[in-house]
Amino acid sequence: MQKIVIVGGGAGGLELATFLGHKLGRKKKAEVILVDRNQTHLWKPLLHEVATGSLDDGVEAVSYRAHARNHGFLFQQGYITGLSRTEKSITLAPITDERGKLLVAERKINYDILVLSIGSKSNDFNTKGVSENCIFLDSPDQALYFQKRMIQLFLKFAEDNNQATNDVAVAEKIELVEPNKINIAIVGAGATGVELSAELYNAAQYLSDYGFGKIDNSCLKVTLIEAGNKILPALSDRIINAAHKELNALGVDVRTNTRIVEATANSLITNEGEEIKADLMVWAAGIRASDVTKQFDGLEINRINQLQVTDTLQTTLDDHIFAIGDCAALLQKDGKPVPPRAQAAHQMATTCGKNILALLENRPLKAFTYYDHGSLVSLSRFSTVGNLMGNLVRGSMTIEGHIAHFIYVSLYRMHQVALHGCFKTALFVLVGRLNRFIRPLMKLH
C-alpha cells in the first residue's frame, strides 16, 4: 500500500489530507498521514482575532486527531528536522514536556509520496532586537501570548487609574511608557497589521464593559508602521484610502515610509533615529519559510527559503515530493510569484490532490493555475473593504461595508466546507450565532 505523508496542517495541508483521506484512506487504497507540530488547527487569517480575544481558539480550533479519525487519515504530532530522498523518509524531532523531559523520541517516517506544506513565518530581515522584543503572529500560541499581554496591560491601566483616584501608595510597579495610555506598535501594514490595529480598538471598547474601568479609544494608542509608501500595497488606491481613513478615525497613528532598524525592550528605532515607545510590539512585516528547508536533502529553495516547484507543484529535483502553500515558490505566467494567501493554499491543495491521484494511476498531471478572486480586509466590526475578481465580476470591483464583510466571513466558511462538508458547516454557523448570546463577546482568560 502506498504511503502519502503530508507535513504541515495549515489551510492547504489539512484540506489535502481530508481530500486524500476520503479518496484513498477510507477505501484502503493508500495510507495517508498528516504531520504537524501542534495538536489543533486554526485558520491563520483568524489569528489577529485570537490575539485580541475577539475569537476563542478553544471553540474554533480543529483537533487533528479527531478530524483524522473522521476523515480516513492518520495523524502524528511532530516537527520535521530532516529529509532523506534516497531513503524516502523524514525525521521528526523529539517531543518533550514543559520540564524538558522526553515524551517521544526522535523518529523517522517513510513515504512513497511526500507533500511539504509547512507554511511561513514573519520575516524580521535580521533587524536588531526584533526576535527578542517583538511578538510574531505566526501561530495560535503566539496569538494567545499577545492576548495575555494585552489583558495584563489593560489590567495595569485600570489599576493605575484606581490608584490615582484613591491616592494609594505603591512601593514598586511596572510603568506604562506613557501615563494613562496603552501604547501598542505594529510593524507591517499588510492585511495582518491593518486588521490587528482595528481589532485592538474593538477589544478596548468591549473591555470597558467587563470591569476594566472606563476605557475608550483615547486610552489606547496604536502605531502602525510601514516601510513602504502606502498600507495594503497589494490593493488598489481606492481601497487603501478607505482603509486609511477608517484607521485614522479610530485613532491609529499610521506611519508610512518608516523603516525600523532596531527594537529595544520598550521601543522601536527608525532609520532616522526616532524612538517610537510602546508597551507591546508586534512584527508583521514580510514572510519567509522556515530555515528547516535547508535540511531537505538538497531540494532547491529561493532566498526566503521557499521550495521551488514546477507548475504541477512537484519540487524541481524530485517528482515524488510536492510543496504547497506559503512554503512553495512558483511563478505565474505574468512572472509574478503566487502570493502567500489562504486562497492560494486552498487552490494548491485542490490541484495537488488531483495530481497525486493522477500520479498513482499513471495519468498525466495538470499544471496549477492561480486564480485571484480578490482581497478583503476586515477592520473588525467597524468596516470591511476589498475587491472582488474572477467569475463573479469583470475585471475588479471594489466593495466595502456589509457586503464586503459577508464575503470576508464566507471565505472562512468555504474553508470549513472543505474540511467538514456543508451540513456540519451550517451547524457551526448556528452554534456561532447561539454563542453570541451564551458566551462573552470576547475571551477574557
TrEMBL record:
Concerning Pfam families, the annotation shows:
Pyr_redox_2
The protein's superkingdom reads Bacteria
Q: Which GO terms describe its biological process?
A: aerobic electron transport chain
Which residue range or ranges hold the FAD/NAD(P)-binding domain? 3-349
Record InterPro entries: FAD/NAD-bd_sf, FAD/NAD-binding_dom, NADH-Q_oxidoreductase
Which keywords describe this protein according to UniProt? FAD, Flavoprotein, Oxidoreductase
Q: Which SUPFAM superfamilies match?
A: FAD/NAD(P)-binding domain
Q: Which GO molecular function, any one, fits this protein according to its record?
A: NAD(P)H dehydrogenase (quinone) activity
Question: What cofactor does its activity depend on?
Answer: FAD
Q: Which family does it belong to?
A: Belongs to the NADH dehydrogenase family.
| Protein name, UniProt field | NADH dehydrogenase
